[in-house]
Known about the structure:
- The chain is an alpha/beta fold.
- The chain has one domain (13-237): Rossmann fold (3-Layer(aba) Sandwich), CATH 3.40.50.300.
- The protein has helices at residues 34-37, 42-56, 77-90, 108-112, 120-124, 130-133, 154-158, 162-173, 189-194, 211-223, 241-247; strands spanning 2-4, 23-25, 64-69, 96-100, 135-136, 143-145, 176-180, 199-205, 228-234.
- The structure holds adenosine-5'-diphosphate and magnesium ion.
Amino acid sequence: MFRRHKPANDAGRMPDRPEDMVVIVDQAVSPYLVLFHDPSGYRAEQVRALRNRLVAMNPDGEPKTLVVTSAVRDEGKTVSALNLAMAMAELERQQVVLVDADMRRPGCERHLNLNPEPGLADVLLGRTTVDKVLRPAGYRQLMLLGPGTRVANPAEVLSSSRLDELLHRLKERFQYVIVDTPPVLPSTDAGVLAARVDGTLLVVRLERSLKKQTREALRTLQDMGANVLGSFVTELRGHDPDSDRRLAYEPRSDEEA
Length: 257
Ligand SMILES: Nc1ncnc2c1ncn2[C@@H]1O[C@H](COP(=O)(O)OP(=O)(O)O)[C@@H](O)[C@H]1O
Ligand SMILES: [Mg+2]
């Protein structure tokens, strides 16, 4: 993140001299969080395009719950959920919360470089209330509900009737509730969660996800009653920065003009 430390006499203006401005790049936060590290880049714009489509699908602006999932592990679910939640949080007056419901291999706190704290599991087990464990994610007004204390039986904990109550409470406070989940094929958690929210996004990692598995995951989600809104294709341009640059559309610099 680029944080500007303004001198005390600067009333919201850009400092006149460059040496007045200190820029800190926080490398501890996962480099894949493009909204954080490269907010004007092509990838961040892609995430905003998805966000805009989702917002357009909700013209009345009603609070919505969204699950982000994929067929198997390491397809970019957590990174996509975080980027989407950050893009949502950029919108004015939008209160957004990201819920890490992957109690098996949680990743939100790791990608955000936050320490594990009590969270979702503790709320679902009735050990605490959601207001006590919601915390800032470190980006704009985005809030995080972490996975909470490790449990041996995530499927059982997630099937608690407290889950519906929790989602209901979150919708009273937030416009968008983004839920990061485990993959669809290895466990029933994602299907259970997807059936309880307003919409589900399926992450597909180009050149890595297997079509057969993605298709099977889609079928499983639909069978469980999920409302699959679409897919979130990651790694579209691989690691080729030149192709990213060609597709980028940034304001022309003075030298180029
Ligand atoms: N857009 C991306 N491009 C390249 N690698 C990525 C991207 N997103 C994630 N990764 C890599 O994949 C790993 C798993 O991503 P993650 O979002 O945690 O997956 P999942 O939640 O599906 O298991 C990350 O730690 C990172 O190394
Ligand atoms: Mg994950």
